[in-house]
Amino acid sequence: MSHFSALLAGIIFGMGLVLAGMTDPDKVLAFLTLNQYWDPSLIFVLGTALIVTFVGYRLVGMRATPLFDGEFHAPLATTIDTRLLAGASIFGVGWGVAGFCPGPALVGLMTFDPRAAVFLIAFTLGVLVYERWFSLPSGLERSKPRTADG
């Protein structure tokens, strides 16, 4: 059932990206570029995402276990450090240059957008470089299960 719920969530997410225009890198770049062509419409997408996330975390916080898994998987790291800031900066620069982030790029790939294919190749190479040189030492878990007692 967890695979089905993940598939369903992915389909809904992808449909939302398409409806919001987030799969069009030109629209994203028009939002990110503060000039006479600035398109503020994606502010509504970001605002909606914040509201959904806020409500979702409140609802999840009321449960001892998830609906379709045996435990919650929370990140280990809880601090804002150089590594997090560097990764966020690289992500932001990539988004600003390409107009894609991974989710919309996958949707773009399904519509045969060659820009999405180029982005995903570069993204995959970046992930491989990270995994090769900057990943956590073996034996450390990337997430810890959250139980009812915290």
Number of strands: 2
**Residue share in β-strands:** 5-15%
Q: What does the radius of gyration come to?
A: 18 Å
What order do the SSEs take from the amino end to the carboxyl end, as H and E?
A: HHHEHHHE
Shape by Cα distribution: globular
Helix amount: 55-70%
Secondary structure class reads mainly alpha
Largest sheet: 2 strands, antiparallel
Structure, briefly:
The protein has helices spanning 2-20, 25-32, 42-61, 82-98, 102-110, 114-133, and strands spanning 72-75, 143-146.
How would you describe this protein?
- This protein is mainly alpha-helical and 150 residues long.
- The chain has one domain (2-146).
- Helix content is 62%, strand content 5%.
- The protein has 6 helices and 2 strands, in the order αααβαααβ.
- It has helices spanning 2-20, 25-32, 42-61, 82-98, 102-110, 114-133, and strands spanning 72-75, 143-146.
- A two-stranded antiparallel ribbon has the order 1-2.
- Helix 2 crosses helix 4 (82-98) and helix 5 (102-110) crosses helix 6 (114-133).
- The longest helix has 20 residues, at 42-61.
- The radius of gyration is 18 Å and the shape is globular.
- The chain starts with a helix and ends with a strand.
- The model has no long low-confidence stretch (mean pLDDT 84).
Task: Supply the key terms.
150 residues; mainly alpha; two-stranded antiparallel ribbon; 62% helix; globular
Summarize the helices and strands and which ones pair or pack.
Elements: H1 2-20, H2 25-32, H3 42-61, E1 72-75, H4 82-98, H5 102-110, H6 114-133, E2 143-146
Helix pairs in contact: 2-4, 5-6
